[in-house]
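[retry 2/3] 3-oxoacyl-ACP reductase: previous attempt timed out, resubmitting with same input.
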Amino acid sequence: MVHGRNRERAEKVAREIGAVGVALGSLSTDEGAASVHEQAVAALGGPIEILVNNAGGSETDSTTRPPLDISIEEWLGNYNGNTLSSVRMVLHAVPAMVEAKWGRVIQISSAVALQPNNLGSDYSGAKAALNNFTVSLAGSLHASGVTINTVTPGVIMMDSLLDWGRSQYGNPDMTVEEVTNRMAADKIFDLPPAGRLGSPDDIAVVVATLASPRSGFVTGSNYRVDGGQVRAVL
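[retry 2/3] 3-oxoacyl-ACP reductase: success.
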């Protein structure tokens, strides 16, 4: 089951992964989240068993500005879009998981939640709040059969970033490696110890593992899929 706000994109993903359908709506409101949940349950023919909260991102350019240049409205918008969107879906889906004594919730966070930079503190703060909520939720569901975990990506080479790089450097035929190396040379980002940027497949492998029946003894954990970007011993 694929959720999205754009039918064409959501249906394309659904076809690619063999999903049973799509649920359209915004998770930024209580009503929108309720509608998405209802659509998902109807398409699945029963309760949601595995919930991957991947909605988020910043809808303004606040990620390029220091804290003193970010408005309260932008703070609230990022908190709503990156924290409360996941909270809403958890409130709808997890009670049925608890009743069934089985379920998986996987929250997609960001490396800046653990290692914030000097820009975009509203976004990194919202993702940090999501991490906190996830740990609290996992601890509260003692012996329920429901696991709650976080996956923390570093910089991922999405199609949108690749397209931006090709446009920025005036060459529509640049490879992923060429775009990555130019961006690193221009200090748009630092390459992590892995020597490359991540791909969606890198994230998918970890998410699929956490969603499987074999992950029943893993909960309240945060898996960094960042090529070594975040330097920490925890």
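[retry 2/3] 3-oxoacyl-ACP reductase: The chain has a mean pLDDT of 91.
[retry 2/3] clearing retry counter.
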